[in-house]
UniProtKB/TrEMBL annotation, chain A:
It is found in: Cytoplasm. The keyword Flavoprotein does not apply. The keyword Metal-binding applies. This is D-alanine--D-alanine ligase. Keywords: ATP-binding, Cell shape, Cell wall biogenesis/degradation, Cytoplasm, Ligase, Magnesium, Manganese, Metal-binding, Nucleotide-binding, Peptidoglycan synthesis. Pfam families: Dala_Dala_lig_C (PF07478), Dala_Dala_lig_N (PF01820). It comes from Nonomuraea cavernae. Residues 103-310 form the ATP-grasp domain. GO terms for molecular function: ATP binding; D-alanine-D-alanine ligase activity; metal ion binding.
UniProtKB/TrEMBL annotation, chain B:
InterPro entries: Aminotransferase_I/II_large, Class-I_PLP-dep_aminotransf, PyrdxlP-dep_Trfase, PyrdxlP-dep_Trfase_major, PyrdxlP-dep_Trfase_small. This is GntR family transcriptional regulator. Its cofactor is pyridoxal 5'-phosphate. The keyword tRNA processing does not apply.
Length: 318, 410
């Protein structure tokens, strides 16, 4: 693997998850440097394209989260520049990043995902919020989970336990996006399953179980060290753990993802995993789930990132 | 400390595409940087052995003399012996709080108040009780009633913390008549006043306001700073305190940091000695006045009719109140998506108030950028009004953690 010359880590961007992305980027840069790789970390601004043209990296690791990195746009630009990168191609990103579309795709291959409604804010404005929200509660029941159709880190997301809480949750959601996904809330164990493909097909890393101190895995719980308890591997029965692994690999494959992904699931009392969403540029911070899963699997994060970069670099040469 | 999604949004506000009306960074680019550079170089060459050595805990004696000269502009006649030089006036505030506050003690403060002070008070577990203010500053009746109620309840009031001139974040100034009333009320009740006055010399009309300390040497601790009149990078501020408090401050200063940096103290001293600092303050005032005008004019021209705001006669900030049912914290994400940033109001209160308010700063962006920022913000607020009307409510989501940006946000 000594043929990997210099590598570019993209972090920052103009999404709501800029800060998280910068932290992910620093972490990936550190572990790659420790693994002996020549790393340059960059933000995505007007100087990016000229600098790549002047000195093309051998491969790019995208740690841009949210719209900036996961909607496929930056990867389309990298393709225009003929620079290889780790992770899914732009078309797959676009499908995966749009949560309702991703849910439809995984449902079509037999996975279970909570029943939901997706509506833009104009619908509520044009048709009247009270009537539409009333029908949603009648159809899906309570509690509900409201989140923006696109985006991550639980920004704009909230649990709705009574019908009276729903309008304010919708307003909070529309602060972060113009389309809301309103999902039946499944009670169970929250787990995240990371999938990596080191060249021999996608493999699920051990599921990580998330137990937030305050009961809700919101932004503060995600990024404050010590505010959430994690179990890696998750405290699941062998059957449930196998079902989670299978669900994540199936989602990864059905959505046409590549190299790396993380699927968030709820495991209900019967051990059935319910697909919530998938991330094509999973968080890599000190409190993120994929690094925890890698550690639980006995894999060195730097080594893992290096193989992914190496495989990406090799793609251009075939 | 808790990670905060609001704080995380300020990471985006630091990008040049975003018009930041959120930060409080002085526009130091307006300084004659080449001259400051020569002065620093000269300082090391000619006074290196002093500048690079430990200094006294109280601060450089010559600089303290110069500080007294600066304070004379606000009617204060004090001796250098009662001045303690600190790392910004923020450190003076920290030391004062450390000296006076036991957990549970009461600090009175305007509502809203400076976020950095609220952070310090919280760190020492003081209980902050807000005093009402209007467009003329603290309401004296509210101050008197609050003191009476607290005393009746047996609550230990340690001091009143106030920013009487060009308030941060409210942008208002305590009028002359009320200044005397506030002094009288506090004197009668035996309540010390901590007067924080970083913006006092940055008034846009006429002469500087007379400081509270000018009319009461025994009952007021005055906090001053070169951060806005020169540059915050030097981190030179000071406290002017009655003798007994001054002695405690010096000991507290020594136990905290031994001594302030001799280097930056001498640099500030040299600047005051060799440069026309009064003219520099004048040019800062002209620069900030133009930006204040740009902000007020564009608010007037562009904001929806239900939005109101204060009209500062100096300083850096305008305090905006949104229509009923709108939550400034909830609209920050949308504002950032539209490439404009502000600070939501709740960070300036210790009791959760301020959800309908926001602070806009005009100190850093050029006037054209300010106008563009207000245009974007007005659009966001209009959308939010529509959303409120659609759903019949604002967002009521709670947010954990710190809701204000760090000091290095423009």
């Amino acid at each position: 693997m000594s043929d990997l010359g210099h590598v570019l880590v993209l972090a920052g961007g103009l999404s709501y998850e800029r800060e998280v992305s910068l932290r992910s980027g620093r972490r990936v840069s550190e572990v790659l440097r420790a693994a002996g790789i020549d790393v340059e970390a960059r933000d995505t601004d007007a100087s990016l394209v000229p600098s790549i043209l002047a000195d093309p990296p051998d491969a790019v690791f995208v740690t841009l989260h949210g719209g900036a990195g996961e909607d496929g746009a930056i990867r389309s630009v990298l393709e225009l520049l003929n620079v290889p990168y780790v992770g899914a191609d732009p078309d797959a990103c676009r499908v995966a990043f749009d949560k309702p579309t991703a849910k439809a795709v995984v449902r079509s291959v037999g996975l279970v995902t909570p029943e939901s409604v997706t509506l833009p804010k104009e619908t509520f404005h044009d048709l009247g919020a009270t009537m539409v929200l009333g029908r949603i509660v009648a159809q899906l029941g309570l509690p509900l989970f409201v989140k923006p159709a696109r985006g991550g880190s639980a920004l704009g997301a909230s649990i709705v336990r009574t019908a009276e809480e729903l309008p304010a949750a919708m307003v909070g959601c529309f602060a972060y996006g113009d389309t809301a996904l309103i999902e039946r809330y499944v009670v169970g164990v929250e787990v995240a399953v990371s999938v990596v493909d080191l060249g021999n097909g996608p493999i699920a890393l051990p599921a990580v179980e998330i137990v937030p101190d305050e009961g809700v895995y919101d932004y503060a719980a995600r990024y404050t060290a010590g505010h959430t308890e994690f179990f890696a591997p998750a405290r699941l029965s062998p059957d449930a753990a196998a079902a989670c692994a299978q669900t994540a690999v199936t989602a990864h494959t059905a959505l046409g993802l590549r190299d790396i992904s993380r699927t968030d699931l709820i495991v209900d009392a019967s051990g059935q995993p319910h697909f919530l969403e998938v991330n094509v540029a999973p968080g890599m911070t000190e409190t993120s789930l994929l690094p925890m899963a890698a550690e639980a699997a006995g894999q060195d994060l730097g080594g893992l990132c290096r193989i992914l970069l190496h495989n990406a670099a090799a793609r251009t040469r075939t | 400390m808790v990670a905060s999604e609001i704080r995380a949004l300020f990471a985006v506000a630091s990008r040049p595409e975003v018009v930041s009306l959120a930060g409080g960074m002085p526009y130091v680019t307006a300084l004659p940087l080449d001259l400051v550079g020569e002065l620093v170089s000269d300082l090391v060459t000619r006074h290196g052995p002093v500048a690079l050595q430990y200094g006294s805990g109280q601060g450089d004696p010559h600089l303290r003399e110069q500080i007294c000269e600066v304070m004379r502009l606000e009617g204060i006649h004090a001796g250098a012996n009662d001045v303690v030089v600190t790392v910004g006036s923020q450190q003076a505030l920290d030391l004062i709080t450390r000296i006076f506050i036991d957990p549970g003690d009461v600090v009175l403060a305007e509502g809203p108040s400076y976020v950095g002070a609220l952070g310090t008070f919280a760190a020492y577990q003081a209980k902050v009780v807000h005093i009402a203010m209007d467009d003329q500053g603290i309401v004296p009746e509210s101050l008197a009633q609050t003191i009476y109620a607290l005393e009746t309840a047996g609550a230990p009031i340690k001091f009143l913390y106030t920013i009487p001139t060009f308030h941060n974040p409210a942008g208002v100034t305590l009028n002359a008549a009320r200044r005397q009333q506030v002094l009288d009320i506090c004197q009668r009740a035996g309540v010390l006043i901590v007067e924080d006055n970083p913006y006092g010399l940055l008034g846009f009309d006429g002469e500087p306001m007379r400081a509270l300390r000018a009319d009461n040497a025994d009952g007021v601790v005055y906090l001053g700073s070169f951060s806005k009149t020169l540059a915050p990078g030097f981190r030179v501020g000071w406290a002017l305190a009655p003798h007994a408090i001054r002695d405690k401050l010096v000991l507290a200063m020594e136990s905290a940091v031994l001594s302030h940096s001799s280097f930056t103290q001498l640099a500030v001293g040299q600047y005051l000695t060799t440069q026309p600092w009064r003219e520099q303050i004048k040019s800062f005032k002209e620069l900030y006045r133009e930006r204040r005008d740009a902000l007020l004019d564009s608010l007037e021209a562009l904001m929806p009719p239900e939005v109101t705001w204060t009209r500062p006669a100096g300083g850096f900030f305008v305090w905006v109140t949104l229509p009923e049912g709108l939550d400034s914290k909830a609209i920050l994400p949308r504002a950032v998506a539209e490439r404009v940033a502000f600070v939501p109001g709740t960070g300036f209160f210790s009791d959760g108030s301020g959800s309908r308010q926001m602070r806009l700063s005009f100190c850093f962006p050029e006037p054209e950028r300010i106008r563009e920022g207000v245009r974007r913000l007005a659009g966001v607020i209009e959308q939010e009004i529509q959303l409120r009307d659609t759903f019949g409510t604002g967002s009521t989501r709670g947010h954990a953690g710190v809701d204000t940006p760090g000091p290095d946000l423009a």
